[in-house]
Amino acid sequence: MNKLDKFYRLPSKQFWNGRVSSKDNPNEYWHENIFIDKGIGNINSMSDVGILGYVCDEGVKRNNGRKGAVDGPKSIREQLGKLSFHTEKNVSDYGDVICVDNNMENTQEVFSNMTKKIVEAGQLSIGIGGGHDLAYGHFCGIKKALKKSKIGIINFDAHFDLRPPNKKSNSGTPFHQILNKFNKQVNYLPVGIQKFSNPESLYKIASKFKIDYVPIEDCTLNNMKNIFILVDNFIKESEFIYLSIDLDGFASCHAPGVSAPGPFGFSVEFFRILFKYILKTKKVVAIDIVELNPLYDIDSRTAKLAAHIINMAITK
């Protein structure tokens, strides 16, 4: 048995449900438009977008977070399936990479190999998690596909996630791992950093890597002009952009169902404006949405937010 067989679960139509369209107006909803490919590791050459789940919260457990993000991909699909479909793009669900025997490292490796195929096929890679350790596997896959290209990472997050791995990696270490491994082939810009969620040691690590960042205090609508200038300068230095969205970066009133909720995150409106601004550059090759914890969600509020972000990513 190879790793793909052991750490991979085929997509299923059972995760995609919603209102059924009328005969006069067929296929108006996501669940009626999603392509489900039953071949293990197959990539649909007709698709423009590939969704891959990361069914793993081992990294969250190692980081002393609240368990439950393992069910994030299922909840996102449930809410996404109900939304109206307003795009001509073809979207494929490529199933889930799953964590077996707490072996997060193998899970990340399989995720990276699947991501490589998706990006090489010219599709927008969308990862749904699961813990933020997804980011390491996702980025490694992007890099395998784009090889020597310089890639900029914009991370919407309350945390730097720059902790050096202590024996084992976790949900707080992915960007330290990426920067250490790929060095000058990657740029990193965290947006939404909260001082009380990051000890002084992480600010020192950010300084060591010469990382600029946007503190939560600057993530306001009346400061958008300055944010745009910062983001423009960052994007100019990169050939491609990878967006990582940790739902705990949002204020907990918008996203209560996360592993590490906080009351002072950015607003949905701030995120929407900046997210769409970045997408207009046409440089975005991959997006992931992480840390959804359905155990603590309220009225599926956080899962719905995640679903709307995906919908926004591919809808004009």
| Helix residue percentage | 25-40%
Global morphology: globular
If you average the pLDDT, what whole number results? 96
Quaternary form: single chain
Number of helices: 11
Low-confidence stretches: none
**SSE pattern:** HEHEEHHEHEHEHEHEHEHEH
Question: Roughly what fraction of the amino acids lie in strands?
Answer: 15-25%
Radius of gyration: 18 Å
- Summarize the biggest pleated sheet: 10 strands, mixed
Gap from first CA to last CA: 43 Å
Layout of helices and strands, plus pairs?
Blueprint: H1 3-6, E1 8-9, H2 30-33, E2 35-36, E3 49-55, H3 58-62, H4 72-80, E4 91-98, H5 104-120, E5 124-129, H6 134-146, E6 151-156, H7 174-182, E7 186-193, H8 200-208, E8 214-215, H9 224-236, E9 240-246, H10 268-279, E10 284-290, H11 301-314
Parallel strand pairs: 2-4, 3-4, 3-5, 5-10, 6-7, 6-9, 7-8, 9-10
Antiparallel strand pairs: 1-4
